[in-house]
Amino acid sequence: MALLCLIMSIEIFAQQKLTLPDTDHYIINDSVMIKTKYGITLSAVVVRKKGVEEKLPTALFYFIYSNNNRSLMEAKYAADHGYVGIVADTRGKRLSPDPIEPYEHEAQDVNAVIDWITKQPWSNGSVGMYGGSYSGFAQWAATKYLHPALKTIVPYVAAIPGLGLPMENNIFLSANYQWAFYVTNNKYTDDTVNNDNARWRRMRNNWWESGAAYNKIDSIDGTPNPWMQKWLSHPDYDTYWQSMVPYKNDFKHINIPVLTITGYYDDGQVSALEYLREHYKYNPSAQHYLIIGPYDHFGAQTGGVPKLRDYQVDPDALINTREITFQWLDHILKGGKKPSLLRDKINFQVMGANKWKHVPTLEKMEDQHIRFYLDSIPGGKKVLSDHTPVKEIFMHQRIDLADRTSFYNDYYPDPIIKKELDTINGLFFVTKPFKQAVSISGRLQGELKAIINKKDMDIGLTLYEITPAGEYFQLSYFLGRASYAYDMSKRQLLVPGKLETIPFHRSRVFSRQFQKGSRLLLVLNIDKNPFAQINYGTGKDVSTETVKDAGVPLDINWSTGSYIDLGVSVAKALF
Questions:
Q1: Three-class SS of residue 315?
Q2: Where do the H-state alpha helices sit in 289-406?
Q3: What is the mean pLDDT of the chain?
């Protein structure tokens, strides 16, 4: 859980092999000022190869983490590959004189940059965008009002404000609390503030122990955080968030090819794949490709690392994200060959099998699907059963929300392979050992059925493989607020004492080769720890609740009608 303090939107570039351009071979303009029709001025770096007479397509990288060297290197790389390389800065960053306002204007500002590009004498009128995290978000923001010159986007680990961060499934997280300071304190980045891990750890722990409302966490830190306060005032996925990226029918009009790259252990994976699912939902003929493998938020932007959080990654999983990106841009903008890895729309690496699979949709990652019920057998043992329970029974769980002696819901996958789990709280459901090797792929989804004595709760689910050696290999997790299970834009409180059905699906996609003798483990818990809001279940705005709202303990009776659905390669004779 401690690694949740990582800033999910930091771009990794220290590992990338880029060099600064020299003026003998390049035409460099690092102080371009783009004045928009609506009165805003944006800055950019433009790099072109000398001696090139013909008009060229543009490779555009839109950047909030302003860094002169990085911008020059990025633009030079694009120029070396036959493009005009442009790195444009977010409003208010680097040379822009305007206020820094993260997320709020990219849908307009990125298109203003594209419009400016098309009017330049060196432009052939075609633009492709690429980049990760915030830069991935900016690409999708641009498609909300799609400019005809934008021909393709290559978003890696793309963020969705209000869905993946600063809240996930309507739960505000402290993981990127300091991010607003990091990007708005100056024209570049405030690395001193961002790297003050002791300060942020102290803030989280002091808030946790105080029992104060979540919207008072900045007063506990001692420095006002106006951006956090603004975001907290939008706990629904409302029009504030919806205005930033394509939403519902907006996807219908996105008819350009897209290549999404993300990882099984990318903190922002739910956002990256929400774009993909919504794109296909509203535009079934979309040309949207996916590459996904055992990468975290940073690794997906470079192509992975041999050892990720103590997991020895299959050699076949390691790719070159930058190389694939420019192969894709060449394919779309110059008529070149499609990257060889893209044999179908969904391209995923099977952990433990050292191979890739290629299928047309996420739903077809495996040929079969099995429903596992959260069951209880005589003696109280909890099992994941592939048979419908003969009789519905209820399993009781009690959580004292005022207690500060223990954390609930230790879901963060670091390390990926654990020797043991904390079993002090939560309900643990285990399958029988598999009788044969089997691959399991897809997202963790299903329905929980429960009766509670309050109006709301925050739920955590974590899925593991228990290997024949007794280790716990983490596969996926889900974190979400029950009252938003049906509609993240509208809260629907639970009725105390009533059997409620809580569907869930925005979780982490994975693919894993199981050995004979392996078992599945699902841990069900309530999210109560220093790393996120605490939902005390009163039905009030969770950010305003305090420990005084805890009242009586949260009593939950989980029904054995609860289940998860998983994709498997073999459905018969598994156990």
A1: helix
A2: 321-334
A3: 95
Return the bridge partners of 554, or none.
Answer: 399
Buried-state track 412-445, b at ≥16 Cβ within 10 A, e below 16: bbbebbbeebeeebbbbbbbebbeeebbbbbbbb
Between CA 153 and CA 6 the distance in angstroms is 26
DSSP character at residue 11: P
Query: Letter for the amino acid at 295?
Result: Y
What tokens were used for 26? Answer: 């390049």
How far apart are alpha carbons 154 and 493 in whole angstroms? Answer: 39
Q: Where are the beta strands (DSSP E) in 232-285?
A: 258-265
Burial class (CB in 10 A: 0-12, 13-18, 19+), 360: exposed
Q: Identify the pLDDT of residue 83.
A: 98
**DSSP bridge partners of 384:** 374
Residue among 434, 413, 427, 450 nearest 308 (CA): 413
Instruction: Residue 526: count other Cβ atoms within 10 Å of its Cβ.
Output: 24
SS3 labels along 398-415: EECCCCCCCCECCCCCCC
Asked if residue 169 lies in contact with residue 527, where contact means CB atoms within 8 angstroms, the answer is: no
Can you say whether residue 304 is alpha, beta or left, with left for phi > 0 and alpha for psi between -120 and 50 degrees?
left
SS3 of 154-207: the string is EEECCCCECCCECEECCEEECCCCCHHHHHHCCCCCCHHHHCCHHHHHHHHHHH
CB 330 within 8 A of CB 344: no
Query: Helix or strand or coil: residue 540?
Result: coil
Read off the pLDDT of residues 18-66 as tens digits, 9 standing for 90 and up. 666 677 899 999 999 999 999 999 999 999 999 999 999 999 999 999 9
Instruction: Find out whether 351 and 512 touch, Cβ atoms under 8 Å.
Output: yes
Q: Where are the alpha helices (DSSP H) in 67-105?
A: 68-80
Cβ-based neighbours of 278, under 8 Å, separated by 6 or more: 246, 248, 251
Q: Closest Cα partner for 531 from 95, 172, 180? A: 172
Cβ contact 544:213 at 8 Å: yes
**Spatial CB neighbours of 115, under 8 Å, sequence gap ≥ 6:** 147, 149
Q: What is the CA radius of gyration of the chain?
A: 24
Amino acid code (one letter) for 129: M
The 8-class DSSP code of residue 240 comes to: H
Tokens of 512: 């894993």
Tell the residue number behind the tokens 């998983």, with chain if given: 566
The amino acid sitting at 13 is F
Strand partners, 349: 356
Distance CA 394, CA 453 (A): 14
Bridge-based pairing of strands 150-156 and 258-265 is parallel
Q: What is the DSSP letter of 249?
A: G
Dist. CA 451–CA 71, nearest whole Å? 54
Mean pLDDT of 379-406: 95
* Phi–psi pair at 391, nearest 5 degrees: -140, 140
| Residues near 181 by beta carbon (within 8 Å), at least 6 away in sequence | 190, 193, 194, 223, 225
pTM above 0.85, yes or no: yes
